[in-house]
Design brief:
single chain, alpha+beta, about 220 residues, Alpha-Beta Plaits, about 10% strand, two-stranded antiparallel sheet
């Protein structure tokens, strides 16, 4: 049997359940906090959320974002504020998908989808302009020919930013503090940061959220 001993591993795997999926026809579900291709969101009335403040460009460690703001035209404003993002570009040859731009944005204008299957045959395609980044009239990401979309990659964008307050206070979990998005409305907050509330209890109140954190929260924060 010595000559056949090398087949022991092979034969032991033959009758086990196969783990290989039918990719790319079917994709495995992505984690809630997965960082993928960006989108520029719009309010439920269709107005753009970006106000051209350039905070995303300033915080980007890879210097891949370029933003130029402009004053809103009084007769046909693009965003609710005084200014809007006139130019918005992301160079995906530099982007490291750290999501710091999402965290820095004061209006939740830029978020990330679950799409990561996209490649480029030339450098120009890798520089996404506002035309490619802005969501369509249904609130969905603009599909590009070099991207592999199967339908649900933009259902939940950057869920992790909706888990707690920016300061990381777990007491703010389940407290909605963001505006609605075109096509999706007000997104539900992510759960699971803190302990499950007792039966009959709702979301923590603002008063309890502003209380001093305990030793465990300090250690985690």
């Amino acid at each position: 049997m010595g000559r056949w001993s090398g087949f022991n591993v092979t034969l032991s795997q033959v009758f086990k359940k196969k783990l290989t999926g039918d990719y790319p026809k079917h994709k495995r579900p992505k984690p809630e906090r997965f960082h993928g291709r960006h989108v520029l969101n719009r309010y439920e009335d269709g107005m753009e959320k970006c106000i051209g403040c350039e905070l995303c460009a300033g915080v980007c460690p890879a210097k891949c974002i370029y933003v130029r703001g402009s004053d809103n035209p009084p007769e046909s404003p693009v965003s609710p504020g005084e200014r809007y993002g006139f130019v918005y570009e992301i160079n995906y040859l530099r982007c490291i998908h750290c999501d710091l731009c999402v965290e820095a944005c004061p209006t939740e204008a830029i978020t990330e989808t679950k799409l990561f299957e996209f490649s480029f045959s030339n450098r120009n395609d890798a520089i996404y302009t506002k035309r490619e980044l802005l969501v369509d009239d249904n609130g969905r990401a603009q599909r590009q020919p070099w991207e592999l979309w199967l339908g649900g990659e933009d259902d939940h964008t950057s869920a992790w930013m909706r888990a707690t307050a920016p300061s990381g206070q777990v007491a703010f979990e389940n407290t909605v503090a963001w505006s609605g998005e075109l096509g999706f409305g007000v997104r539900a907050p992510e759960r699971g940061q803190g302990a499950a509330p007792a039966s009959g209890e709702g979301a923590p109140s603002r008063a309890s959220a502003s209380a001093e954190p305990d030793d465990e929260e300090v250690a985690l924060g």
